[in-house]
Design brief:
303 residues; alpha/beta; Rossmann fold; 8-stranded mixed β-sheet
């Protein structure tokens, strides 16, 4: 959906191309991928599965780590079959999302990165490293355990699962933006009260601990200069039809949410306002290695 220039912008959804560009800028400023991958064993000639929303910043370092003979397999943010995607009319969004990241891959000249439909990522192949990047964001909390278990099922014994999510409690502005803060707080509180999503990511370490895995942790945050595209995130997220806006609209009513969006919109386009972007929390742990080399399945590169 095009932007409504007469008022607050309306995006097609959280995977809008503008947000990809803003997300990529955020990742570059924090460089979380470099800090985490320096501590994760990514084998040369190995295989990596990248699940979730794609900003592009993780792909180049992952591709460099596995080398030309390795493979980085990339999916979008979905867990359904192709047939389910068509029924829910999400196939176009999935292609759009992959195309946005494909541009990053093409610009960087990455030849060992391949895009696949999300449903094919869990088809029995084993990967040396599985990176879940914002794959839990927006996913109902009741689905988290199943998603993580499937990710672990395709991580080879001795391999590593990396989970990266944002903690939106750290989204602030300078100078202060009371209307934006109010709108953001309403989205977070009402969505979490309904149990649909978790904006705090306090649950991430527990994902590993409940599976007898002790994770390593790394956190980053960034200050984005005026004009950054993520400054409009609360305004676009609260738009009708984004899904994430449903709980706050159910609680406050459409008229009140639109009033809040209209009040927040001028603050979101202030040319002097900085955004202190969300804390990025990365957690990772290695699966137990097999007791003998005879028991170890080999990682399978996708040809």
């Amino acid at each position: 959906m095009p932007e409504d220039t007469s008022g607050p912008p309306v995006f097609a959804g959280p995977e809008d191309l503008h947000e990809f560009e803003g997300l990529a800028d955020l990742e570059r400023r924090m460089d979380t991928s470099a800090a985490v991958l320096a501590q994760v064993d990514v084998p040369v000639d190995g295989t990596v599965l990248h699940l979730g929303i794609q900003g592009g910043a993780w792909l180049a370092p992952l591709a460099a780590a596995v080398g030309p003979a390795g493979r980085v397999t990339v999916t979008g943010d979905s867990s359904g079959t192709p047939e389910e995607e068509e029924e829910e009319e999400e196939e176009e969004e999935l292609v759009w999302m992959s195309a946005a990241t494909a541009r990053v891959v093409a610009d960087a000249g990455l030849t060992n990165v391949r895009f696949v439909h999300p449903a094919t990522a869990f088809d029995g192949r084993l990967y040396d490293v599985v990176v879940s990047f914002r794959a839990l964001y927006g996913r109902p909390i009741r689905e988290w355990d199943d998603f993580i278990d499937r990710a672990l099922a395709v991580t080879r014994p001795g391999g590593t699962l990396v989970v990266v999510e944002y903690d939106y409690r750290n989204w602030h502005y300078a100078p202060p933006a009371p209307a934006l803060e109010l709108l953001s707080g309403a989205i977070q509180s009402h969505a979490q009260e309904r149990g649909d999503v978790d904006f705090t990511m306090d649950r991430i370490p527990g994902i590993f601990l409940t599976r007898a895995m002790v994770p390593e942790l790394h956190a980053d945050c960034a200050a984005l200069p005026p004009g950054n595209l993520l400054l409009t995130k609360p305004v676009s997220a609260a738009a009708t039809g984004t899904g994430i806006s449903d709980p706050v609209r159910a609680a406050l009513g459409d008229d009140e949410v639109e009033r809040m969006r209209a009040a927040a919109h001028p603050e979101s386009i202030d040319p002097e306002r900085w955004t202190f972007a969300p804390l990025v929390l990365a957690a990772w742990a290695r699966l137990p290695a097999p007791t003998s080399t005879d028991d170890a399945p080999s990682s399978e590169a996708i040809s």
